[in-house]
Specification:
Order of helices and strands of chain B: HHHHHHHHHHH
Order of helices and strands of chain A: EEHHHEHHHHEHHH
Shape of chain A: elongated
Number of strands of chain A: 4
Largest interface: A-B, 57 and 63 residues
Number of domains of chain B: 2
Number of helices of chain A: 10
Strand content of chain B: under 5%
Strand content of chain A: 5-15%
Distance between the termini of chain B: 56 Å
Radius of gyration of chain A: 27 Å
Largest sheet of chain B: none
Structural class of chain B: mainly alpha
Number of domains of chain A: 2
Largest sheet of chain A: 2 strands, antiparallel
Oligomer: heterodimer
Low-confidence stretches of chain A: none
Helix content of chain A: 40-55%
Number of helices of chain B: 11
């Protein structure tokens, strides 16, 4: 059970796969956010030096807002992530896959007080290490989840291979295996592809043989099964 | 149907959906490139179609690249379809006129317990320190006690502070008081013990200071100072404590739910209570910074305004939002 995928069902009846983010990447995101907040506060500090007593009050209010509401404001935008989280490809969602609600964002960030105990986010770290979905206490109470944003994948382009009809009738399972091989082919090394194709050499009547020519024929059969005819 | 045929047949719809998504997400516009507004019903239809196609593709075990493409498309569209945008003024109005007071009344029992845990030490410690002013030294060090004397003496230009101005103190009250209230709430996550501790501790501290200053003869300045903003501040602390007690209770006695489920259910109402309390604390900080500290105002005026504030807060929490019930 190495996979930590959490499946969430939508009202449309499909399963969304959520990939919870683990401790290290969340620590990086936190540190980045912390530096950003520090930078903003430092900038404001310089400005308010010229504003006298009003400036001091303004600065104290800013410190407060930054401490408690910096994450809330960013989590409620469309990206659902603070700049730090966004940089590391994370976002916060409800644990049923929906975008985060204002109440949930408010709760999970208020409960940082509890997560911080006894020092340095001790309880948050313990909780994240113990749970398969890496929730800290605030996430547990607010029913939220920090997930990896799905990365846009490059579209796999299948090599142009002449389609060849299989020499024997193929069971549905075998057809699926061949189609999966064709779709994976661009990501495999030549040797590995030959090895795998040799297992299926029987479909083009070359049982027991291997090599680039056999691979070519097997991929041809796959193309035929995928629906290509010319 | 072969995978290629499937893709060929439906990919125009996927491309159309992807195009609408790009426009919504990347450029965050509500119009198409042609300038026409994006039609929600078309988006919804395309989304549902893509969901059907994904279900079909999974059932027929089509190649992974096709599934990946559809999974990403539906996941992105799902986020757009279910994104909530109701953060406007009408939402704030509904929150203030109904949601907040109703949530407080829904947890009335916790509010009473929290009020007891907070006001009991105020009275007991306050009375003890009033009769034996030396006891203040077991709460604070002598220098702090002396500074209390200076802050609330008749000679002080503005009450309740050393030298800072209204704005500085406003900032200080915001960050300091709201932190206390939030701690009272978050402490509930430790089976409610944290909330109980913070309520008792803050009650004892406030009681000690009040008792000491009254015993030292600064009572009239002190009470005139605290009586107005305490309507908002102390009430908000009690409410946050009540929210903390509720989640503590939900953890200790989850009933028929799992412990986590029980916690999530309890927190839903608490978030409203704590958010409302935070707004009350901002009001309290403004009053404390700009009104309470003005020593030149006649005490009679301060007490009358305070009476109005207390009445308003209590009747608001008891009565507001009942009509729509």
């Amino acid at each position: 059970m190495l996979d930590t995928v959490v499946a969430a069902e939508t009202p449309e009846g499909i399963l969304l796969e959520l990939h919870p983010a683990g401790l290290p990447v969340r620590v990086y995101a936190f540190i980045l956010d912390w530096l950003i907040r520090l930078g903003i506060l430092y900038g404001i500090d310089i400005v308010v030096h010229f504003l006298g007593e009003f400036g001091v009050g303004f600065w104290l209010v800013t410190v407060f807002v930054m401490e408690w509401f910096y994450p809330v404001v960013f989590e409620l935008t469309r990206s659902g992530a603070t700049p730090g989280k966004k940089r590391f490809g994370l976002k916060v969602v409800m644990d049923n896959g929906l975008p985060i609600t204002p109440a949930a964002s408010f709760t999970r960030n208020l409960l940082r007080v509890a997560d911080f105990m006894p020092f340095g986010y001790g309880l948050a770290i313990v909780s994240m290490l113990l749970r398969r979905d890496f929730k800290r206490l605030g996430d547990l109470a607010a029913a939220t989840l920090v997930v990896h944003q799905p990365q846009p994948q490059r579209r796999a382009t299948m090599a142009k291979v002449e389609p060849v009809p299989p020499v024997t009738a193929l069971a549905p399972r075998d057809q699926l295996a061949l189609m999966a091989l064709a779709a994976r082919a661009p990501t495999l090394s030549g040797e590995r592809l030959n090895e795998l194709a040799a297992l299926a050499a029987a479909v083009c009547g070359l049982k027991g043989q291997r090599g680039a020519a056999v691979t070519h024929r097997v991929l041809g059969v796959s193309q035929w099964l995928m629906g290509r005819r010319a | 149907m072969t995978p290629l045929h499937f893709e060929e047949l439906y990919s125009p719809e996927w491309r159309e959906l992807q195009g609408l998504l790009d426009q919504l997400l990347v450029r965050n516009k509500k119009t198409t490139t042609a300038g026409a507004p994006i039609r929600g019903e078309r988006f919804a239809v395309l989304y549902r179609r893509a969901c059907e196609h994904l279900a079909l593709a999974r059932a027929r075990a089509y190649p992974a690249y096709l599934l990946d493409q559809l999974e990403r498309l539906t996941a992105d569209a799902h986020q757009v379809i279910y994104y909530r945008r109701d953060y406007g003024l009408s939402r704030l109005k509904a929150f203030l006129t109904t949601d907040f007071p109703r949530s407080v009344r829904a947890d009335a029992l916790y509010v009473w317990v929290s009020a007891g845990l907070f006001y009991l030490p105020v009275l007991v410690i306050g009375w003890l320190v009033y009769t034996h002013p030396d006891l203040i030294l077991s709460v604070v060090d002598p220098r702090t006690a002396a500074s209390f004397d200076a802050m609330y003496s008749d000679a002080a230009a503005s009450v309740g502070r050393a030298a800072q101005t209204d704005w500085t103190m406003f900032g200080y009250y915001i960050s300091h008081n709201i932190r206390i209230a939030f701690q009272c709430f978050a402490g509930g996550l430790f089976a409610g013990i944290g909330s109980v501790f913070y309520l008792l501790y803050n009650g004892a501290e406030i009681g000690a200071v009040a008792g000491y200053l009254t015993a030292r003869g600064h009572g009239h300045t002190f009470w005139a100072f605290v009586v107005t903003h305490s309507a908002f501040e102390l009430t908000a602390i009690v409410l946050c404590g009540a929210a903390g007690l509720k989640i503590g209770h939900a953890l200790i006695l989850p009933g028929r739910l799992g412990r986590i489920q029980s916690l999530v259910a309890a927190v839903r109402n608490c978030a409203v209570v704590v958010a409302g309390s935070a707004l009350m604390l901002v009001a309290a900080a403004a009053i404390e910074g700009f009104w309470s500290s003005a020593n030149w105002l006649p005490h009679a005026l301060k007490y009358s305004v305070a009476a109005v504030c207390w009445l308003t807060v209590l009747s608001y929490l008891c009565l507001a939002g009942r009509r729509a019930d």
